[in-house]
Each structure stands twice: as C-alpha cells, then as structure tokens.
Amino acid sequence: MTTQITTTPGGEGMGGDRGWTRRRTLVAGAWSVPVIAAAVALPQASASAAITIDLLGAVDDAQTYPFSAAGDTAPLIFQVAGSGPIPADGTAELVNAGGIASWDESVLLQGALASAPIDTDGTLILPIVALAAGTFPVLVHVGSVSRTFMVTLEQA
Predict the structure, then answer these.
(1) Would you say 78 and 56 are in contact if contact means Cβ atoms under 8 Å apart?
(2) What is the pTM of this model?
(3) DSSP secondary-structure letter at 27?
(4) pLDDT at 57
C-alpha cells in the first residue's frame, strides 16, 4: 500500500501527517518553557532591584524640625535600602523653600540639586539651614527612584 503526500508551495506536507502528534506536542512544549520562564522571571528581577527611600523620624512622609534662630542647621537624614545594588550617591531639591530654608554650605550643589554620598549602611545626609518657620517639600532622587517628603521648620 502506498500513501501519497502532496506538498504545499511552502513545502509543508499534506496527507498522512496532519494534526498533532506526540512529537509536535513535545516540540511545542519544549519551545514554550523558556518563554514562560522568562515571562515569570522578569517581573521578579525588576522588583528585586527596587530602591526605597525613607526620611528618618518622618510620620506619613512628614518631619518637623525645631530651630532656635535663623541660621541653625538641621540634618535631613534619609535611609536608602534595596535588595539590589544601591547607587553611590543621592540628590535632593528644596521645592518652594525660598526664605524658609537653604542647603548648608557643606552640601555639594549641582544647580538647584544638592548631592551627597550614600554611606555603606544606606544613610544619605543632606543638612539644611533654617531661615524662617514654614513648610516645604523636599524631593529626593536615588537612581531612578524619586520620593517627596514634607519638612516643617518650627521656631522653638
């Protein structure tokens, strides 16, 4: 007995080898394993490198600093953490703080951004100088992560 197989213009066989065979199922399964594994692993990989920034002593991302007189210094101490590598330094900007606060002269300024190294324990310290009582946001950047904290300077 002879089986006649005709081919399509693309060279694919028709006739006796139609449908799913065990071999086709195994091949399809083998090709799908790396695709599924990559799809599952990528969200975990990106989540594992997440960086968190916290202002020490802050409640609901807000912190109050008392000062005695204009010119007093208050250290803004941030804790940076992450399950992946943490950048070597961070930056911050005082938003609408004119007349209320300025960066201490010990801070390296890059335009309006203050920059400081992050210690090996994840501490970022950026001191400010109190000029008057008031509240303003501080926008902190570490790597691709940014976070805003509200700072209040209160005359004691």
Answers:
(1) yes
(2) 0.68
(3) H
(4) 93
